[in-house]
Amino acid sequence: MKKLHGLLPSAVLLSVVLTASLLGGCSSAPAESAADDSNVVYVYNWGEYIDPDVITMFEDETGIRVVYDEFETNEIMYPKIAADSSQYDVICPSDYMIAKMIEGNLLSPLDYDAMPNVKANIGEDFWKTARDFDPGNIYSVPYCWGTIGILYNKTMVDDPVDSWSILWNEKYKDNILMQDSVRDLFSVALKLDGDSLNTLDINQLEKAKEKLIEQKPLVQAYVVDEVRDKMIGNEAALGVIYSGEAEYTREENEDLAYVIPKEGTNLWMDDWVITKGSKHKDAAAKWIDFMCRGDIALKNFEYIYYSTPNTAAINLMDEDERNNPVLFPDLSQYHNLEAMKYLGKDGDRLYFDLWKEVKSAF
Fold it and tell me: Are 186 and 143 in contact (CB under 8 A)?
């Protein structure tokens, strides 16, 4: 399979860059002028989150020119769109950010009649999950999804790995890697206590903070994509990681295994949306529909190696890919999976302040 490209989507990726969201951001124009844009679509997506050949295929088949820009985080993308939602036509934000954009009146309702591949090929379970952040599935179409779990080295860990609690086991001191990410870090402690990763209950959050401070002496490092490289190199025994990253590491190091803890985790999703100010809504709809065609969704999956919600693409996969328990787990086995929700400015500030207390402890 293709090596993972670029930055993590984010699903689920509310990391240290939350500072940018809290402090604000600056707006800039798309890479190309809109002087001659009568037959064009402006696309804004995560870095290296699409097979470049797909862009060429779309242009060749539709005659629509694509102006394609990339962003690194939801928090960098948001202020640009908030400043002027007409800069881009179609964007691929994460679940909680979609909710924030809906609240900010930055998105356009979708015309599903103009996108036959969307309803035909996106699995019902994913529409249901998307309703957690897009009630009624009015504004967004699932593109990629995954989970966050524990990656462990079978030669270094001799205890059962089925619970977040193993990350508090003193036996593995200095061999534990945690996510350097506000929401991802807190979700581990919250889930371990049986609480929602979207809670705003200060008592639950304070308890999670204290658990993370208690764990801190055991942690080798707080990292993001470095988890992948450290685990491949046998530099740690346990690490919190995204499922797509985990599968790549398993191919590079056969001693590694990935589990979704029994207490539950974040089921993240990145979706296509059309901006409120889009000047090319028809072209944007054609783009989304094209991305949902089975062969195109498969091509993207084989390039970025993150799970696709596209049933037509899954049916085109070979048996090993389709039955991969890391990329396509049986979600019916889990009862505590949650999409990450936007918690409002006050909620963001609360999590960030508690995260700073964890990071500054000791």
Answer: no
Per-residue pLDDT at 217 exceeds 50: yes
What's the pLDDT at 129? 86
pLDDT of residue 74: 83
Between CA 42 and CA 86 the distance in angstroms is 9
Half-sphere CA count of 109, side-chain side, radius 13 A: 5
Cα separations in angstroms, 316 against 228, 233, 325: 28, 33, 17
More confident residue, 76 or 287: 287
Coil, strand or helix at 99: helix
Is the predicted pLDDT of residue 31 greater than 80, yes or no? Answer: no
Query: Which of 359, 348, 322, 304 has the alpha carbon at shortest distance from 8?
Result: 304
Average pLDDT rounded to a whole number, residues 286-305: 95
Of the candidates 229, 286, 241, the residue with the CA atom closest to the CA atom of residue 57:
286
Q: In what helix (H) or strand (E) does residue 213 lie, and over which residues does it extend?
A: helix 202-215
CATH class of this structure's domain 146-266: alpha beta
> What is the residue type of 273?
V
CA–CA distance, 22 with 345 (Å, rounded to integer): 8
Cβ contacts of 53 within 8 Å, gap of 6 or more: 299
Assigned fold of 18-145+268-333: D-Maltodextrin-Binding Protein; domain 2 (3.40.190)
The residues with which 181 forms a beta bridge, in sequence order, are 15
Q: Which long-range contacts (CB under 8 A, 24 or more apart) does 345-352 make?
A: 347/200, 348/18, 348/21, 348/22, 349/22, 350/200, 350/202, 350/205, 351/18, 351/182, 351/183, 351/186, 351/205, 352/18, 352/19, 352/22, 352/182
- What's the confidence (pLDDT) of residue 33? 45
How far is C-alpha 119 from the geometric centre of its chain's CA atoms? 22
For 100-143, the pLDDT digits (tens) are: 999 999 999 999 999 999 999 999 989 998 998 999 999 999 99
Domains 18-145+268-333 and 146-266 are alike in CATH topology:
yes
CA 358 to chain CA centroid, nearest Å: 24
